[in-house]
Design goal:
215 residues, alpha/beta, Rossmann fold, Arc Repressor Mutant, subunit A, 2 domains, 6-stranded parallel beta sheet, 11 helices, 6 strands, 13% strand
């Protein structure tokens, strides 16, 4: 698919965990002559499986999904199909979300409370490779500016403590002995860290933390 024009219908995969909103998006896209909905999924894991099977060239993805989140899905799909373009359609929540979206290389971002006209503009631009980011997102980027990530706004003190030891390669049992927690509780904090940093695996958690300047 070349930038700025559509030679064929845009093969679109929708990944959204809210059933009513997913159904709305499927119906809306089916009414757009330039787009073909090839599938829909309620989770990133299901979306990844469908992306492998159906080979869409455009993803419309909620950022906040059960298990692996939307940006992790986009990264995984692009490893298979680098030409795949994507629009994040979700709710902007915190500085970490702004940072991760900005660094992800997605073609667009839009809030769920947008108008149909805004949705049409965003999907057209993102699918064609021109890029579209909502006014609220651009305002958030300006507010954040070049400031380093405010870790205290993202991670609890205990999560920061656990992450510091994770980055040194310690096991959950070793971390628990150092900070007075059970290994099971440390595993709980590890899971929270992975969710907040959008990491699908312990190895990816280390990579993401270093990319964001957390270790």
């Amino acid at each position: 698919m070349s930038a700025g024009r559509f030679d064929d219908k845009v093969r679109t995969l929708i990944v959204e965990d809210q059933g009513i909103f997913r159904a709305f998006l499927c119906d809306w896209f089916r009414g757009q002559e330039k787009f073909e909905v090839v599938g829909s999924a309620a989770s990133a894991e299901e979306g990844l499986r469908l992306a492998q099977e159906l080979q869409p060239n455009f993803l419309v993805v909620d950022m906040h999904l059960p298990g692996m989140d939307g940006l992790a899905l986009v990264r995984a799909v692009r490893q298979m199909r680098p030409e795949t373009r994507s629009l994040i359609l979700t709710s902007l929540t915190d500085p970490l979300a702004v940072t991760r979206i900005r660094e992800s290389g997605v073609e667009g971002y839009l809030e769920k409370d947008c108008t149909p006209e805004e949705l049409a503009e965003a999907v057209g631009a993102a699918a064609a490779g021109r890029g579209y980011f909502s006014p609220r997102f651009r305002d958030a980027i300006r507010r954040e500016g070049g400031k380093p990530l405010a870790v205290g706004k993202i991670l609890s003190k205990r999560e920061q403590q656990v992450l510091a030891h994770v980055l040194t390669g310690k096991t959950s049992r070793e971390i628990g002995e150092l900070i007075g927690l059970s290994a099971r509780t440390v595993e709980f904090h590890r899971a929270n860290l992975m969710a907040k940093l959008g990491s699908p695996s312990p190895t990816d958690l280390l990579i993401r933390a270093k990319q964001l300047g957390l270790g």
